[in-house]
Design a protein that fits this description.
It contains eight helices and ten strands. With about 240 residues, the chain is of the alpha/beta class.
Length: about 240
């Protein structure tokens, strides 16, 4: 498989009145196109911080993150997202990266369909096709078993349905990678299992790369590989 993300010598520190707190300590790792990677480790090991930097939601103290974006039809190129200006970075993030978090972060006043369409607002501002995006949103909701619930607001949906809406939202702009931070952590075991099967199916069918932070060892073992983080370092890969 071809490389999608290369991380080299990544460091992240926070500065407090008590001094420097080093959270990530020189991480070097590669993630390939189409793979499903589970990141495991104890709470406080740096997993979420690492995921947020991969997603450009946070910046590293030092080190590099390189994305190899595009394909044969568009031409592949390396992009260092932290070298982009703020507007370019927002567009890059919107086009290349999808996010699924433990809490769905749906907007309560909007329907499931409208929530799925939210990433499309930036695309429309850049000249995207509204009809195409609407049709894509409907297909995703149908694929995830939510078409009949598309007009319902989040408060009218179950926890599992809300998280599936969040997955559809993450996939709307056909990202090259989906970063998922404890996506089943707020669900019961059966609903979490159902959601994970959906993610596996999307990975197999669409070839979307998934990088998943999880405490659920039984689910992480079903990823293509597992990376373990301890004390800010990647200590093993399986």
């Amino acid at each position: 498989m071809k490389d999608l993300i290369r991380v080299e010598s990544l460091e992240k520190s926070f500065y407090t009145p008590a001094g420097e707190l080093r959270v990530l300590k020189g991480i070097t790792e590669t993630f390939s196109r189409g793979e499903m990677v589970g990141i495991v480790g104890a709470s406080g090991a740096g997993k979420s911080t690492f995921l947020h930097i991969l997603g450009t939601l946070d910046t590293p103290t030092s080190g590099t993150v390189i994305y190899r974006v595009g394909g044969q039809d568009r031409g592949e190129r390396d992009i260092a997202p932290f070298s982009l200006g703020s507007a370019e970075l927002a567009l890059f993030r919107n086009r290349v990266i999808g996010f699924v978090f433990q809490f769905h972060y749906l907007l309560p006043e909007f329907s499931a369909f409208e929530n799925v369409m939210m990433p499309g607002l930036i695309a429309l501002a850049q000249g995207g096709d509204r009809r195409e995006l609407q049709e894509r949103a409907e297909r995703l909701l149908d694929e995830l078993g939510l078409f009949a619930r598309r007009t319902h607001k989040p408060g009218e949906l179950s926890g599992g349905e809300q998280q599936r809406v969040a997955v559809a939202r993450a996939l709307l702009l056909e990202p090259e990678v989906v970063l998922a931070d404890e996506p089943t952590g707020n669900l019961d075991a059966a609903t979490g299992e159902e959601l994970f099967r959906l993610l596996q199916g999307i990975n197999a069918k669409r070839g979307v790369t998934f990088i998943i932070v999880t405490h659920n060892e039984s689910l992480s073992r079903r990823c293509h590989r597992i990376v373990e983080m301890a004390d800010g370092r990647l200590v093993s890969g399986k």
